[in-house]
Known about the structure:
Layout: H1 2-35, H2 37-43, H3 46-67, H4 70-78, H5 86-113, H6 121-143, H7 147-171, H8 177-197, H9 209-233, H10 235-243, H11 246-277, H12 285-317, H13 329-351, H14 355-380, H15 382-408, H16 418-433, H17 436-471
Amino acid sequence: MADKSLDSDSTFLAFARSTGIFFIGNSMSKVITLLLIPLYTNTLPAEDYGYYDLSITYITLLTSFLYCDIWSSVMRVMRDDLKGEAPWRVVTAGWSIFGGSTLLYIMIALTASLFVNVPCLGLILLYGVTSNVQSMFSCIARGRGNNVDFAVSGVMCTLVNVGFNLLLILACGLGYEALYVSYAAGFMVQCLYLYLRMSMWRHCALPSWRQVKELLVYSAPLGINSVAYWLLTSLSRVVVSTVLSLAANGVFAIGSKFGSTIALATTCFTLAWQDIAFTKEMRPAPFYSRAVTKYSGFLLTCTAILLPSIALFFPLLVGSDYSEAYSIIPSFLWIAVVSAISTFIGNIFYVIKDTRTIGVSMVISCLINILLVYPMTIGMGCLGANLSVLVAFVANIAIRIVILGRKIGLRLFWNEILLPLCLLSLCSIAYFVGGAVANGVSLFIAIIGFSFLYQDKVTLLISSLGGRFLRR
């Protein structure tokens, strides 16, 4: 029994270490993006920010379909054999598919511009290409186990992005165009750093046609999944812009920035989970069941703490033109939680190499959203758009749990999720109907609940960090 506990603790510590590295490399950028909200909301008109956000939404749709999440496939297949030049053949096969997708992306965008006026088309193309190249380089680094390099490159990307934002908006007086340039500059610096650190010019192992074909077949269902994911998470932005206005989408986009605070945890957790899950050997079913349950409970509890914190600091962060975002922020946080749980569960399908089910479950969910999003947006505005997505994601999670239950015996321990769910419900009610005092009380209760639920893990983590410090 002690051995089993020790194994559980060592797995947790490995997970925590990877999470910390990925937080520095990936999620820290989202922290700084939140700090830029006052800059955006006090200098950029809501309509301009709405157009920028809508253009990124369309880029995401097009690249999701064309690239088929090829970078995740490369990372997964690399892990099967990391000896010699074998992983680099996978990388080259991935770049071959990536190159074809990039040509199609540029051709489709230029063709569309012949029929529709697209402001800042060149900058939009630049943003799309550089963001996808960055995704490819990042996954190659992670596939090789260069997690520290990935973290350092992420910090560099963030610093360049912020620096260019401040320079172009404040010093040069540029408008929303600065956002495309700033992100592209950060992406390029990150890619250059990883290229040099991995000495990629030394590895030109040519793949066979069979490898390219196998990688394409593996990735193809992920393209369907990515488009479905767009229809599930981003269609609401198009609907808000159409049914309401570009200015309303600007407010909607700022509200979504607060939802991205959940991604501070979920992104790095997901990356760390992939490090553990993407191995040749399947773990026993209870391992995955326990992981999904713990992850879900932790996210619900953290969101319960976050909601009243946002309520208390909102007036300091957001300009008056975007004040309507306050009422839709909780729904963005709820969506972030269910989206993260869906992705976490979805990674288990990568382990068993069943990418088809990922696509099927996502298609069903996006169809639900397509049916609901227009009438709910017309009836309830931005909040209705988000509630439609929330319902669809809950359905997605249910489908995936049922399928994994049949395939590997996955199940949730609902009794461990009940208290976190109650904490989130309490803090959500306080957010909508209470003032500063009510939100302060709910924040205190949520912190007490977190301490009760995770005291042992926090103690273990502190002990491990203390032991490392003393050994040094």
